[in-house]
Amino acid sequence: MRKKILGFLCFSLVWQALPAGAAGGLEGVSVSGFMTVGATYGDKQLLSNTEAVSQDGTIENTPGFTADSRLGLQISAKVNEDISITGQLLAKAREENSNVEADWAFINYRASEQVSVRAGKIKFPTFLISDYYEVGYAYPWIRPPQEVYSSNPITTLNGVDVLGRFRFGDLSLLVQPYFGVSRGAQALVPQEAATAFPICFNGTTGTFGACQAGTVVYTDFTADALRGINVSLSSDIFTVRAGSLETKVNAPGFGVFQDTAKFSSAGLSMDWHNVVLYSEYFKREISGAANVAFPNQKGSYATLGYRIGKWLPHFTTARIKDNNNPTTPPPGFPIAGTPLDQKSNTLGLRYEAGSGAALKFEVQKVTPKEGTRGLLIARPDMAPKDPGDDVMIYGISLDVVF
Amino acid sequence: MKTLKQIWAVLLLLVLWAGFVPAHAALAIIVHPNNNLSGITADEAADIYLAKAGVFTNGKRAIPVDQAANSPMRKKFYSAVIKKDDSTLKVYWSKLLFTGKANPPREIGDDAAVKNWVASNPDAIGYVDGKFVDSSVKVLLIIP
Prior knowledge:
The complex is a heterodimer.
Chain A: H1 2-22, E1 29-42, E2 70-78, E3 83-92, E4 100-110, E5 115-123, H2 146-149, E6 156-168, E7 171-188, H3 191-194, E8 200-202, E9 207-209, E10 218-234, E11 238-251, E12 256-272, E13 275-286, H4 290-293, E14 297-306, E15 311-322, E16 342-352, E17 357-368, E18 391-401
Antiparallel strand pairs in A: 1-2, 1-18, 2-3, 3-4, 4-5, 5-6, 6-7, 7-10, 8-9, 10-11, 11-12, 12-13, 13-14, 14-15, 15-16, 16-17, 17-18
Chain B: H1 2-20, E1 27-31, H2 42-49, E2 63-67, H3 72-82, H4 86-97, E3 106-109, H5 111-120, E4 124-129, E5 138-143
Parallel strand pairs in B: 2-3, 2-4
Antiparallel strand pairs in B: 1-4, 1-5
């Protein structure tokens, strides 16, 4: 409800600001936005009772538009020389009825030429492109590699961050510590946990029981004392970054209370003489009961592309694996750690379709480790029809910024 | 005799004029007359326009303004000073804008509008066709 009120307030603001901003008459207020319309198709039906292919159900064994389509609208206003406010509303097709959420809503205070402090709702940088994950136009892929980017279900915090920006000749150093809490975020429940915990409501019996295989369930997920730091060094050619974050997570449906989750990551990107390169690595460590449903993970990817005029063909190889899973569940837990182990290879093509628009095509081959389902909804080698080792996912999208 | 001298003077002026203002429009990077800078390099101007620097080399705040998207002077400025193509710039700004780190320069309009804006804003920096320059603004760099 609060979100809806906030969304309505922001929309009212945008509505009032739009005509004036469009006429260039309102000083210090700017309105901008981005949009992605995308279609995906997974070539294999993995379970007999659902068309879902990806574990979150957005990529299906039928052409669908919900995985990637979204609209963002940003308004920022200068309060005075040193204070500005920014709000960004995001409507995702994957959420029911494209509900609008405020993805960003903060006050920025410019303390000096080098240091700014922001307070409010902030998308924090777990990884290289986490804070502009929704802005498809800003990166080469349709979907940033899920072997890394699916691992942190919390992407925003309510709190503060500091942007320290320092220049050394042609190099820029960004030091960005952040601190806050996350409320009302939803984490995707792994299939193994959904079918083992009594979290699905059965209308006939009126009680909660284990879900059917293939049911996509989200659980409320809160994070306290979320604190992290992002350090990046960049020039016109490259960006190198490293970061870590730690938080106490709570997921009431799973007996998870104040368990520690830690992320460490490093990555780089480069754009040099038409050669485009991205690579990242991360490690996720989760302690206590949370580790059972949300295991430790390691993931990485590397992307290499070569720009030819308006075309950017690129290739990505990515891997995610669990590590240090408890092999025997703690007392009272019906399951052992959930295996999320897969690799994928992706061929992609980005085409600059005029100013501020990019058309993208992708073909991805997802191969879960033998005996696991990886980031799919079920094991492809147990598919009801044409079982095999991998699944092909096809995608096309149009990304614009305005 | 007097008329001949006058003709020579006019010719000399014309030659000088032609020397200062070439046939194609020169671009002038301008600031408010109260700005105590005597000049700026193209790289320093690019840093300000790309939000890498928020201040001039004298430490004073710098607020850049752009001409409208299709103006010839904007095209000239971006190819000669910023040296990035349109899609590279759009990606660059998408990353900064939608993460709340920086906003692109405000678009003001044409040469006359930018000159008037710069003339009335002590922190401003802009660029105009050289023939629009007058005493209301100070020229820091001329790009022929």
